[in-house]
TrEMBL record:
Catalytic activity: L-cysteine + L-glutamate + ATP = gamma-L-glutamyl-L-cysteine + ADP + phosphate + H(+)
Organism of derivation: Glomus cerebriforme
Name of the protein in its database record: Glutamate--cysteine ligase
Listed Polar residues bias regions: 527-542
Ranges where the record places region Disordered: 522-542
Length: 659
């Protein structure tokens, strides 16, 4: 969630007057960082995952599973333990975990204490570190509380009780019909963010996800649980005035999206060029991994007809005014903007010569003045446009204290950057640190077990190594990546849908050469290094038209390949692993993760979304009407708790893999 600066946040009426100031300062800060650090070379691979947890409180008497709002006490203890551990470290030790608050007052974010390095040995520690994090978090919970990794909490915003302690849904920040403000992290930043998005937009956010029509779901489905006659806030009438669509699950607050959990991975690249390259290549994996990790089929107590969270979050922070959404002529605003601040990326940014201009085929909305300023100050056009695109947005939370001028800061830049929640994030180094240029992969949904989360984290890390080793080229026109994002949301997309993908991931014949051991640095330790040489510059000898470069493939084909036609990403990763001669034991562990991803892609084991949907539909109390009752929710949370502890046998979800 970015840095949590402390201070006094300005309400929107005041904050909006400083928007240009923050943007100008932000651009100056970016320029200063860029010019100081653009030539930074030979940073090593460092990477880290972020796992988000919900704290569930079981009420055994009433058979209810609720979200516990005690996170602040828990986080306080975790951070104290972190500080104590730091003090007692021997010189050869590193701290194992790090904890941060998240948007929901029931959410925790845990990361490794320090990023992992570029050795295989560290890949093997991911799962045990995740397990350790979960145990540590649980240590500070009450006996009836558990940390659970689920993407969307089924009963959030339902009638009845879903929070511990319970509060009625009335709150100035969200003005929601369904949730109280106590559900939001009490830090002023999050409350202000919520209120300012609503005020900037000029209404509450309106998220409508299609209902899953089961055999007894009414048609049309008009949600009987939406309060129709409340008069607490002027916004209360929005639902009746058309914001709540028939046949949809209507949600009216930021927490429905930002209160979802996900799995993110950040990588440090060797230099800025490599970071820009990874940003582009991984962008195309965004929708593929979203579909493969789909885990969110239930919202506000109803089965929906989608399997993942992305569009819900996009809607939950959509601060665009009517003018910006193209519903009214531009008068007070400057741009018609086609996407929410939380959405897929709109442009590729690599300096690599495999990036053809045709791939950037979206009509990029960007601030022309900012772009010119950046280019006048030595930034190339692609990067200038990327930054000028991020900077079409207003800063949402401005701390009064941050308006004082200061040297060597990045706070104003980060203000805009970190509230552009896109599928990928290109992260410049913070000023005055040893950290290098990084990219963050942000589309994956969180899985129930540490095993699954480790498997996806390891898969993505190894994929970046294969991309860099073999100079893989995943480019397709970026509009096709957007199409893939839509497809990824469909129910059982992994099984039934096809995604645009590049046919020849080797740029040209020359790239078919597989790099051997001589290209791999060894870090001198007993474990293999995954650091890669960089700078593949290939020229295209036989240009073919862009339209012929890609086709629609199943996820099975993309991941597992198809007889000589397409190698499959797992094959490429395996080849990479063979090329670095790893020991049998490590190979075996990594092989297990890859095997899991392979089976998920083949449909041999279910996505979390499918498994949850089936669990609900086969529950004895389910009425075939799309309704997920308190009791079904309770049973679901109970079995999830067992699964994550390895105490339930669920071959449809985990095959024969042991957690
Ligand atoms: P954000 O808040 O932008 O998502 P965080 O600061 O929470 O990012 O860090 C995200 C992940 O990045 C964590 O897993 C952390 O371990 C990892 N990380 C920290 N420093 C580096 C680095 N220099 N290179 C790569 N990853 C890093
Ligand atoms: Mg974070
Ligand atoms: Mg993150």
């Amino acid at each position: 969630m970015g840095l949590l600066s402390l201070g006094t946040p300005l309400p929107w009426e005041e904050a909006k007057n400083y928007a240009d100031y923050v943007r100008n300062q932000g651009i100056n800060q970016f320029l200063s960082i860029y010019h100081k650090l653009k030539d930074k070379q030979k940073d090593c691979l460092l990477w880290g995952d972020e796992v988000e947890y919900m704290v569930i409180a079981f009420d055994e008497e009433n058979k209810n599973a609720k979200l516990s709002l005690r996170v602040f006490e828990i986080l306080d203890e975790l951070q104290k333990e972190e500080e104590a551990a730091l003090k007692n470290l021997n010189s050869d030790e590193v701290i194992k975990t790090s904890w941060k608050p998240e948007y929901g007052g029931y959410m925790l974010e845990g990361t490794p204490g320090v990023p992992y390095g570029g050795t295989l040995k560290e890949l093997l520690q991911v799962e045990s570190n995740m397990k350790f994090r979960r145990q540590l978090a649980a240590k500070y919970m009450k006996p009836n509380e558990v940390p659970i990794t689920i993407t969307s909490f089924p009963n959030l915003g339902c009638q009845g009780q879903f929070l511990e302690p319970h509060y009625e849904p009335k709150g100035e920040a969200s003005r929601s019909l369904f949730v109280p403000d106590q559900i939001i992290n009490p830090h002023a930043r999050f409350q202000t963010l919520t209120a300012n998005i609503r005020k900037r937009r000029g209404s509450k956010v309106a998220i409508n996800m299609p209902i899953f029509h089961d055999t007894k779901t009414p048609k049309p489905f008009i949600d009987p649980t939406i309060p129709r006659n409340r008069n607490l806030f002027p916004e209360d009438k929005e639902a009746d005035e058309g914001m709540a669509l028939p046949d949809h699950i209507y949600m009216d607050a930021m927490v429905f999206g930002m209160g979802c959990c996900c799995l993110q991975i950040t990588f440090q690249a060797t230099n800025i060029e490599e970071a820009r390259r990874l940003y582009d290549q991984l962008a195309n994996m965004g929708p593929i991994m979203l579909a493969l990790t789909a885990a969110a089929p239930i919202y506000r107590g109803y089965l929906s007809d989608v399997d993942c969270r992305w569009n819900v979050i996009a809607g939950s922070v959509d601060d665009r005014t009517k003018e910006e959404r193209g519903l009214e002529p531009l008068k007070n605003n400057r741009f018609i903007i086609n996407k929410s601040r939380y959405d897929s990326i709109d442009c590729y940014i690599s300096t690599d010569n495999t990036l053809k201009p045709e791939y950037n085929d979206l009509d990029l909305v960007y601030d022309k003045e900012i772009c010119k300023n950046l280019m006048d100050n030595g930034i190339d056009e692609l990067l200038a446009r990327h930054i000028a695109h991020l900077f079409i947005r207003d800063p949402l939370v401005i701390f009064e204290e941050s308006l004082e001028p200061k040297e060597d800061a990045s706070d104003h830049f980060e203000n805009i950057q970190s509230t552009n929640w896109q599928t990928m994030r290109f992260k410049p180094p913070p000023p005055n640190s040893t950290i290098g240029w990084r990219v963050e992969f942000r589309s994956m949904e969180i899985q129930i077990t540490d095993f699954e989360n480790a498997a996806f984290a390891v898969f993505i890390v190894l994929l970046t190594r294969a991309i860099l080793s073999y100079g893989l080229n995943f480019y397709i026109p970026i509009s096709k990546v957007d199409e893939n994002m839509k497809i990824a949301h469909k129910r059982d997309a992994v099984l039934n849908e096809k995604f645009w993908f590049r046919k020849n991931v080797f740029e040209n014949e020359k790239n078919n050469i597989i790099y051997g051991n001589e290209n791999l640095d060894n870090d001198g330790s007993d474990s293999k290094s995954m650091q890669q040489p960089n700078g593949h510059n290939y020229t295209d000898k036989n240009p073919i038209s862009v339209e012929d470069e890609y086709e629609q493939m199943s996820i099975d084909k993309i991941i597992n390949g198809s007889c000589n036609k397409f190698p499959g990403l797992i094959t490429l990763i395996n080849r990479y692993l063979e090329s670095i001669n790893i020991d049998i034991e490590s190979r075996c562990i990594l092989g297990k993760y890859l095997e899991f991803v392979k089976k998920r892609a083949k449909g041999e084991i279910q996505t979390t979304a499918k498994w949850i949907r089936e669990f609900v539909r086969s529950h004895p109390k389910y009425q075939e009407d799309s309704v997920v009752t308190q009791e079904i929710n309770y049973d679901l949370m109970k079995i999830i708790e067992k699964i994550q502890k390895g105490e339930a046998n669920v071959p449809e979800l985990l095959g024969n893999f042991k957690v």
